[in-house]
Amino acid sequence: MCLREIWLPLAVAAMLLLGCKDSPKNTKVTETVVTTAADTTVVQENTKINPEPEEAFKLTEDNAIDFFFNYQQDLKADKVKITTRFGSFTVELYDNVPYHKANFIYLTRKGYFKDTQFHRVVKDFIIQGGNSDDAITGKKRSDIGRYLLPPDTRKGHRHHRGTISMPSSEIDNPHMLASPFEFFIVVTDPGSYHLDGDFTPFGRVVEGMDVVDKINSQPIGKGDWPVQNTYIQDAVVVE
């Protein structure tokens, strides 16, 4: 037998044995792209990287009006129930003051008003809510965003008793832009009409005005802040 006849079967067997060995495991997740040009093969490996998480949406001076314009388009709810240690009251929001209505519903659904306080009580005039000296309130505001709302005072609504309205911001504010996180309710009978034209009425108390009067009757200290904190224990949209 010639040498060539012995070598050929051995070479074939060796190739088969090599082909049966386990391939090494690759623990790196990669995407391989192979491109061929003439006799040259180029292999590129692109490691898959998890995308950066998207930043949470925040309202700003630039996007707030557009956001609330779109938000109120399909908004059916128009009532919010507010609960305190004195009981609950319900406010009905006006459809023709759309940005303020949408803002109040949006903040309620975001859970903003829960655990804020009626931090200002002026006897036989108003109760004002939506603020607090607790750190959690500042954190909520920061998470929601920084923005103001333009006044909307020409819809025929007046500051009758039971009207819920929005105070202007404490910042230098010649245009009376409204602080969106706070609200006040008129308790004066029949009303506080000197406020008309300067502040935006956007709803009225339709149930539980006696609870509003109880809050207004509480002892107050410096800066019209109640001596005993009056928290909003819950605020929910009446669907």
From TrEMBL:
Lineage: superkingdom: Bacteria
InterPro entries in the record: Cyclophilin-like_dom_sf, Cyclophilin-type_PPIase_CS, Cyclophilin-type_PPIase_dom, Cyclophilin_A-like
Annotated catalysed reactions: [protein]-peptidylproline (omega=180) = [protein]-peptidylproline (omega=0)
EC number(s) on file: 5.2.1.8
Region feature Disordered, mapped onto this chain: 150-169
Domain PPIase cyclophilin-type: 87-237
Keywords: Isomerase, Rotamase
GO molecular function, one term: peptidyl-prolyl cis-trans isomerase activity
Family membership noted in the UniProt record: Belongs to the cyclophilin-type PPIase family.
Biological role: PPIases accelerate the folding of proteins. It catalyzes the cis-trans isomerization of proline imidic peptide bonds in oligopeptides.
Name listed for the protein in its UniProt record: Peptidyl-prolyl cis-trans isomerase
Naturally occurring in which organism (per UniProt): Maribacter chungangensis
Classification of source organism: Bacteria, Pseudomonadati, Bacteroidota, Flavobacteriia, Flavobacteriales
